[in-house]
# Entry
Amino acid sequence: MSTSFPNSLLKTGLFDLLYPPFCRLCDQKLTTDEIVFCGACLNGLEATYIRNWIEKITFHDWLDEVYSGWFFDEKMQIIIHALKYDEMVVVGDLLGTRLAEMFRDTLFSLQLNVLTAVPLHPVRLRERGYNQSNQLGEAVSKHLNLPFSADLLRRCKNTKSQTNLTANERMDNVTEAFKSIAEPPERVLIIDDVLTTGSTVSACAAALKRSGTKFVAVLTAGTPYFHGLDSQGKT
Ligand SMILES: [Zn+2]
# Structure
């Protein structure tokens, strides 16, 4: 799988500084076509092998279908951390390309009009410099040649971090946090990095559906182990 690197980085040698040629998971030397993580580690991630798992999600009232690529184990945690906090935009490309391949048939069967991503509040976006979910979404879009728009949803409340909140606190925290554009497309896929209770994507879907969207599916890279599903992905 190819990842495109900015030529200017390659020329200046900054590239090695930003992306040392060792896998962040196993410390093995990377080959010339690998970046940040080696192919063996990425291939070894624990895929969920699950289809639509909406029934197991705490908050799914506004959602129609939900898919997640891999379980959020220690390795996945390191990968998402690199994507989210270490500004490794290429990680979004790596994961998004693989996600697109895993869910190619499913995504085409959903007859989507557009892909979008959970937006960050403008203040958070300025702090972080980029939206990690956009990176994922754009990679899926590019790989499957499906349209992507980062402008369907706007985050109008700068919500506090969901990390240490209970499920109900999470929902209260994000309710009314999102606004949709007027007359959004009918069938939308929202892409995000990790799905836990579903509160954030459900709030996004609520905003879209109140404005006229008929169908909202969700695709995330990671999900924690959840009740009723063992590590082999069998229910
Ligand atoms: Zn590795």
The mean pLDDT is 87. The beta strands are 65-71, 114-117, 153-155, 178-180, 187-194, 215-223. Residues 48-223 form a domain with the Rossmann fold fold (CATH 3.40.50.2020). The chain has ten helices and six strands.
